[in-house]
Design goal:
Elements: E1 7-12, H1 18-26, E2 30-35, E3 40-42, E4 47-49, H2 52-59, E5 64-65, H3 73-81, E6 86-90, H4 98-101, E7 108-112, H5 124-130, E8 135-142, E9 152-159, H6 166-190, H7 222-231, E10 238-242, E11 245-255, E12 264-268, E13 271-275, E14 280-287, E15 294-295, H8 296-302
Parallel strand pairs: 1-2, 1-6, 2-5, 6-7
Antiparallel strand pairs: 3-4, 7-8, 8-9, 10-11, 11-14, 12-13, 13-14, 14-15
Length: 312
C-alpha cells in the first residue's frame, strides 16, 4: 500500500500543525480534505483571520472545512461524505466524538507534543519546561475517547535547553512531529505499525494555561521561577507587580544572590537582579501594561528600580 492509496483527512489549526500537513502532502498522501477551526478575529483591528492550516491547505488546493462544532450531525456527515480511510489530527482544538473516531478504517492518529504518557492535555510544551524537564518530544498515537490516552505508535525525543522558552521549543517540536507522522505513515503502509498501550500509572496532565498561572511567587527558588518564566514565554507570560501595576518579565537567568524574596538587589544594563527563596533571578526584559517589552537597559531609562524596591 502507498500513501496515495489512503484517503486522508487532516485536522489541525495552528502553526504547530503545518509541518505535519506539509509532510503528508510531500509524502504523496491522498488528502481529500482539511478540517480546521473557523476564522477568528485577530489583532488590534479584530480582523477575521484564517488559521495557518487553512492558509497552507488552500495554497495546496486541498478542500477546507471549518465547522464550528465537529460533533454536530451536519459536520459528521460532511466528514463521512469524504469517505476517509485515515484521519490525522494535530492540534485541531476540538474533541472528536466516538462516531468520528470510528469512521476511518485505519483510525484517527494524533501527533502529541510530549513523550506520552507524560503531559497529556492541552499545554504539554509549557508544562514540561515549567516542571524543569530536560528531555521531551512527540508521540503519535491512535486516538480513543480518553484525553490523549490511546495506544502509542512512534515516539521521538529531544533535549530541552536550560534557557529554552516554550516558543523556541514549540518551533523545534513542530518539525519533529512531522517527522514522527511521516514514519507512522510509512509503517502503516508497510503493515509494520505496532501499538504500545500507555501506562496510566506514569501519566501526568498539562491543562490549558491561564493568565493567572503566570503570577510569580518570589518565595520559590530562582530555578523554579526561571522555569516558569521560560515556560510561559511568549504566552501567557510570567508576571509580578510594580507599584500596583502588572510587570511581565522575560529573558531570565539564575545567579547567586541573597535577600528578601521579591526585593530588587541591583539594577543595571545587564538586568534587574531580584532575590528569590533560593538564589536570585536576573531579569533581562520587562514590560508594563500598554507598553512594549524592553531590554533592561531601555526599561531602566524610564523607570528607576533602586535596590530595595519590592516586586509582587
Amino acid at each position: 500500500m502507498q500513501p496515495a492509496d489512503i484517503r486522508t483527512v487532516f485536522m489541525g489549526t495552528p502553526d504547530f500543525a503545518c509541518p505535519s500537513l506539509a509532510g503528508l502532502i510531500d509524502a504523496g498522501c491522498n488528502l481529500v480534505g482539511v478540517f480546521t477551526q473557523p476564522d477568528r478575529p485577530s489583532g488590534r483591528g479584530r480582523k477575521l483571520t484564517p488559521p495557518p492550516v487553512k492558509v497552507l491547505a488552500e495554497q495546496r488546493q486541498i478542500p477546507v472545512f471549518q465547522p464550528e462544532k465537529l460533533r454536530r450531525p451536519e459536520a459528521v456527515e460532511q466528514l463521512r461524505s469524504l469517505a476517509p480511510d485515515l484521519v490525522v489530527v494535530v492540534a485541531y482544538g476540538q474533541i472528536l466524538s466516538r462516531e468520528v473516531l470510528q469512521l476511518p478504517r485505519f483510525g484517527c492518529i494524533n501527533v502529541h507534543a510530549s513523550l506520552l504518557p507524560k503531559y497529556r492535555g492541552a499545554a504539554p510544551i509549557n508544562k514540561a519546561i515549567i516542571d524543569g524537564e530536560t528531555v521531551t518530544g512527540v508521540t503519535t498515537m491512535y486516538m480513543d475517547e480518553g484525553l490523549d490516552t490511546g495506544d502509542m505508535l512512534i515516539r521521538k525525543s529531544l533535549d530541552i535547553g536550560p534557557n529554552e522558552t516554550a516558543g523556541e521549543l514549540h518551533d523545534r517540536l513542530a518539525p519533529l512531529g512531522a517527522e514522527a507522522m511521516r514514519e507512522t505513515l510509512q509503517r502503516l503502509c508497510a503493515g509494520t505499525l505496532e501499538r504500545v498501550p500507555q501506562n496510566d500509572a506514569e501519566s501526568s496532565y498539562a491543562s490549558m494555561m491561564k493568565k493567572e498561572d503566570g503570577r510569580i511567587d518570589w518565595n520559590r527558588p530562582a530555578r523554579q521561577v526561571h522555569n516558569l518564566v521560560r515556560g510561559l514565554d511568549p504566552w501567557p507570560s510570567a508576571y509580578t507587580t510594580l507599584d500596583g501595576l502588572t510587570l511581565k518579565i522575560a529573558a531570565t537567568s539564575v545567579v547567586a544572590g541573597t535577600g528578601e524574596p521579591g526585593m530588587v538587589l541591583q539594577a543595571s544594563a545587564d538586568g534587574v537582579l531580584v532575590a528569590c527563596g533560593e538564589q536570585a533571578l536576573l531579569v533581562g526584559r520587562l514590560q508594563l501594561p500598554g507598553k512594549k517589552q524592553l531590554a533592561a537597559a531601555d526599561f531602566l531609562r524610564g523607570h528607576d528600580l533602586p535596590p530595595g524596591t519590592r516586586l509582587g
